[in-house]
Amino acid sequence: MCAKKVTVLGSTGSIGTQALDVIEKNGYEVVGLSANSSVLELENQVRRFRPPFACMVDERAARALRDALRDTDTKVLAGVDGLCELAAREEADVVLNSVVGMVGLRPTLAAIGAGKPVALANKETLVAGGKLVTEAARAKRVPILPVDSEHSAIFQCLQDRHSARALKKVILTASGGPFFGRGREELEKVSIEDALNHPNWSMGAKITVDSATLMNKGLELIEAAWLFDKTPDEIEIVVHRESVIHSLVEFDDHSVLAQLGVPDMRIPIQYALTYPERLPSPVKELSLTNYPTLHFAKPDIETFTCLKTCIEAARRGGLAPCAISGANEEAVALFLDGKIGFLEIGELVRGAMNTVPRADVYSLEDVLQTDAQARAYVRAQAR
Known about the structure:
Layout: E1 5-9, H1 14-26, E2 29-35, H2 39-49, E3 53-56, H3 59-68, E4 75-78, H4 79-87, E5 94-97, H5 105-113, E6 118-120, H6 123-140, E7 144-146, H7 149-157, H8 161-165, E8 167-174, H9 184-187, H10 192-195, H11 205-213, H12 215-228, E9 235-239, E10 245-251, E11 256-260, H13 266-274, H14 305-316, H15 320-336, H16 342-353, H17 364-381
Parallel strand pairs: 1-2, 1-5, 2-3, 3-4, 5-6, 6-7, 8-9
Antiparallel strand pairs: 8-10, 10-11
Helix pairs in contact: 1-13, 2-3, 4-5, 5-6, 6-12, 6-15, 11-15, 12-14, 14-16, 15-16, 15-17, 16-17
């Protein structure tokens, strides 16, 4: 059997680097790599995996990478257009999109348009453009393979088509982040370092802050609605501190199935890349005796207002999820720059959602415009 050929978008981030670990262990071939601006890291990856194509989204970084790789045969693409070209290259059997942020939407559509299966770790793709992406995937008969541990867990529980038809409810588990159990007064003075101190997972800064605000779980609810054709009211969120049960499904007969494993992203990454096969894993086995007690609780949506706003945006539909996604991305960047407080993230996200008119029919241009307007709103309010 020929080795699978993989393009990894966002290869220098947390998911991207773990994906390369999985790819190397399985003997797969890397045919494309991309990063935003991390020239040295991407150069090292190119020299390690020798893909025919690489892309830097930042134009200046692309020029620097071209200079650094003059002694190689790798062609360096640039900008979002270059990212889309890389995603659509014919060499790839599967495109793993682990780009962070709204920039991931267009390359996802480009890969689908080229008939490529997409292993999806970019939340904004489905949050902002879920209708566009799922319709395109159906038209091209291209699978969207979830990489997030929660959506992968649900996906794995639904491999039997009879079970998929009987799906009643999706149950998303949440770690609760570093501030579980705290009230709003305690969150007033949260520092950047506090927000980046996740109890279970090692992730990039933006996603780690999203976990602290529970925005991450709200975005995952919207993703799950698109991936598994469920309404927001058919998706339940449960805080599970140990992150051993990655998510569950409930069927019409009230049977519940769960997928368990140690909290290591290489499990869902590998399943997305090897699907429908399962291969030996680089991850250690789960020993239930190491977790003699598992805890569950309801999320506090009055304290963690980002989650409450996401649920409301999912119910509104249209461009509301796009607005909260763009607003959150901008607000988290301001928080990480020390320009706003932790609780202001949620306030700005809700404010941006309330500026969006209802629109059941929308285009890619509408999505990009709504995203830009939401970001502008956040910047204006934060001055």
